Every structure is written in structure tokens, then in C-alpha cells.
Amino acid sequence: MAKEKEEKPRQPLPPLSAWVPAVALGWLIPGGGHLLLKRTGRGVLLLASVTGMFVCGLMMRGAMFQPQSGDLLTTIINTGGFIGDICSGILYLLSVWLGYNQPDMAGHVHDYGTKFLVTAGLLNVLAMVDVFEIAVGRKE
Amino acid sequence: MPKMNLSHFEAALLFSLFTSVVMGVVTKRTDSERLQYGAYVFVCFLAALFGLGWLMRLGHG
After folding, report:
1. How far is B61 from chain A (nearest CA, A)?
2. Could you report the per-residue pLDDT of A35-68, keeping only the tens digit for each?
3. Inter-chain contact A49–B22, Cβ cutoff 8 Å?
4. Which of B6, B8, B19 comes nearest A60 by C-beta?
5. What is the dihedral sign for C-alpha B31, B33, B34, B39?
């Protein structure tokens, strides 16, 4: 049976210097990688969206995750949430340095806030992947 | 920093808006495709929001 999909040859990865600065800047400042690569409009939209989501999370008094060990579910949720929080880059670092320390509380607003904070980081991961693809020439 | 008190609907709407913008920006290859996809994702979020909301209401009795 013939293969329906043709396998594309894998492209070699360009040198690190071609994409690491853009991806790193994209992590530190949401949309920064796009701005560095002269995708100004998209960079500004990403900056506004990720920052807006993070700030809304802070204003809803969402909790930041801390890595915890224990049973498997606790470890996955807290470590995953912590990674999600960290992916917001400077937003996370600034809020921690400025003393934001909201305990996890009951209530739908706090709960939404916690999800907003994590999702802001996850959206920034999507932006970083996009920056990587632009930087290595897989996308315009 | 002021505290924001939103209802479930408002919070979900805000979440949908931000997420749709990012999904639209990072996918597709042309601006018009991005705009269309962002709008499509937002409408899907709204459909899921209303659909699940009504499902829960009808299921709850």
C-alpha cells in the first residue's frame, strides 16, 4: 500500500545564534521576539494580550503556583502551574520581586485569576514557538 | 492594584478574547487568515460557553 503522505526531509536546525536571542527575548518580554524580528503588529498584539491576561489575573488576586512534591497529581498540578507562571517572563519576575504573594483562596474570582496567570504563560509559550519558526525560516 | 470582581460569564469572555487574539496571531500565514481564525476561535469559545452553560442549567433542573 502506497503511503498517502510524502515524508518531507528534515531540515537541519540553524545555528543557535539565529534563534536563541529572539526566543529568549520572547520569553522575557511577551511579544519581544516578534518585535526583534520586525513583526511589529503581531508583537504588539501579543504583548497586549499576554500582559492583559496576566494583569487581569493579578487583579483577580490569583495564586501563583509553587512546585510541591507529594502524590502524583499534586506534583503535576503544582509543578506544571509553576512552569506556566514562569513562562510569563518579566511579568512573573516583577510580580514576585515586588512581593505579590496571594494565598490560594476559595471563590470563583480567585480561581479564574489563578487560571489567567497560568494561561498568560502558556500563551507566551505559543508566541515563543511562533518566534522560533519565524527565526529559523519555517514561517514568514 | 485594584481588585477585579467579575462574574463567571465576564471572566470567561475576557479569557476567550485574550486567547483568541493570541491563537489568531500565532497560527496561519496571512493577516486575513489570522483575523478569520481568531474570530472563529472566539466564536467557538462563545458557543462552548453558552452550550455548556445551558447544558448545566438543563441538567441541574
Report:
1. 22
2. 999 999 999 999 999 999 999 999 999 999 888 8
3. yes
4. B6
5. positive
Residue A132: HSE in the Cβ half-sphere, 13 Å Cα cutoff: 12
- Mutation target to probe the A interface, by most A beta carbons within 10 A, among B9, B15, B26 is B26
Query: In B, which residues are within 8 Å of A52 by CB distance?
Result: 18
Residue A93, C-alpha cell as written in the block: 519576575
How many Å apart are CA A55 and CA A91, to the nearest integer? 9
pLDDT in tens, B14-42: 999 999 999 999 998 889 999 999 999 99
Q: Report the distance separating Cα A19 and Cα A126, nearest Å.
A: 15
Quote the CA–CA distance of A62 and A123 in Å, as a whole number.
17
CA distance to partner chain B, nearest, from residue A1 (Å): 32
At residue B21's C-alpha, the angle toward residues B18 and B23, to 5°, is 105
Place of cell 490560594: A104
Nearest to B1 among A45, A58, A115 (CB): A58
